[in-house]
Amino acid sequence: MKSFVRLALLGVLLTACEPSNLEKQSNTAADAKAATFVYAPTLDRPHQERMRRSEEFSIPGSSLRNSEEWVMEWSVVVHRETNLFKRSLTLLGLKINVNGAETLRGDEVKASNVTIDVLTDKDSNVVDVRGTEQFSNALVALGSPEAQPFIRRVFSPERLKALAIERSVELHSDFVGRPAQPGSTWMANDASMGTTRQIRVLAEAPCGAQRCVQARREYEVDRSAIYAEVAQRVGAFVKSQGGDPSQVSVTGMDLKLEDTLVIDPATTEYYAAQFLEDMAIHVKGPNGELPVKYTIKRQIEYRY
Questions:
Q1: Please, what is the Cα angle at 175 between 173 and 181, to 5 degrees?
Q2: In terms of domains, do 5 and 143 share one?
Q3: 8-state DSSP, 36
Q4: Into how many domains does the chain fold?
Q5: Residues 24 and 124 grouped into a single domain
Q6: 206: domain CATH number?
Q7: What's the rounded Cα separation, in Å, for the pair 94 and 92?
Q8: CA pair distance 269, 175, nearest whole angstrom
Q9: CA torsion, points 17, 20, 25, 30, in degrees to nearest 10?
Q10: Which range in 42-51, 151-160, 248-257 is most confidently predicted, on average pLDDT?
Q11: Same domain, yes or no, for 229 and 259?
């Protein structure tokens, strides 16, 4: 009843103070813009991003446990370059820990001032990636002689470029132009990767002075590639224990792949992001079933 009374009073006020046609058109355009995710990066405003990535592959109850943890800190700013957006990412810190051993401590990169530029068009499509060669060389030079082959492999110019494109697509392609109202749901797919994604806008979320929304993205993937990788890694472990790797086969998998995201629809800028791949895999080996746990988790913090 109170809501009805408020709406009635609002109707009287709007009738008495009706806006001009120009104001109506402006409000309609603003409402339409707010109703969808718009690619409009804020220009010339530096901010920081901190990404923590952890990966663990293990067979509980056995000696097999491989783990990696990375922490990357970036200074990020977007400028205009002709009709493109140039997103410049300068690395402030990089920690890499592999199976408990530090490959990089994090402070080695502070004086390197290495930057990657990702150029996108008005629709968020990646047009160019610059600086990967210099970035790769600088990171390799920071590592110890023992660590350099690992760093060179992980941070090759080709992998850096592919990763920069993949990360930009991951943040934008499923959202730009899509509805931003809570309750909205849609599907997306990538035929080349055999991946189907369901995206849902769950609710509004606080993000400072902006109006953000929380979204969740869930994946269905072609499991054959995961099966092959798991069988290979478990087979290598079985061989190291004196067993026959040819007897290793994957018999089943419980899989959870989902992203939890906080996004400003007016710009498609992020305020929080978590990407989770959690797999419990059933593997048959020479001596029976081996339960395999495989988890990859990325979390990104944004400081504006």
A1: 175
A2: no
A3: B
A4: 2
A5: no
A6: 2.30.230
A7: 7
A8: 11
A9: -40
A10: 42-51
A11: yes
Burial 17-49 (b: 16+ CB within 10 A, else e): eeeeeeeeeeeeeeeeeeebbbbbbeeeeeeeb
pLDDT in the model for residue 208:
81
Instruction: Please tell me whether residues 18 and 108 are part of one structural domain.
Output: no
The owner of tokens 């993937």 is 221
pLDDT, one tens digit per residue, over 128-153 is: 999 999 999 988 888 788 888 988 99
In 3-state terms, the chain is what percent helix, strand and coil (to 5)? 30, 45, 25
| Strand 47-58 versus strand 210-220 pairing type | unpaired
Which tokens is 184 given? 């909205």
The answer on 18 and 39 residing in a single domain is: no
Tokens of 87: 């997103």
Residue 159 domain boundaries: 35-303
Pair (6, 84) in one structural domain: no
* Residue reference for tokens 């994946």: 219
Does residue 111 share a domain with residue 13? no
Which are the contacts of 168, defined by CB distance < 8 A and separation ≥ 6? 87, 118, 120, 124, 126
Question: CA torsion, points 283, 153, 68, 168, in degrees to nearest 10?
Answer: -100
Give yes or no: residues 189 and 284 share one domain: yes
**Alpha carbons 9 and 126: distance in angstroms, whole number:** 50
Look at the block and give the residue holding tokens 């629709």: 123
In b/e form, how buried is each residue of 166-180, taking b as 16+ CB within 10 angstroms? ebbeebbbbbbebeb
What pLDDT, on the 0 to 100 scale, is given for residue 261? 98
Mean pLDDT along residues 191-213: 89
pTM for this entry = 0.83
Who's near 246: CB < 8 A, 6+ residues apart? Answer: 235
User: What is the number of residues in the chain?
Assistant: 304
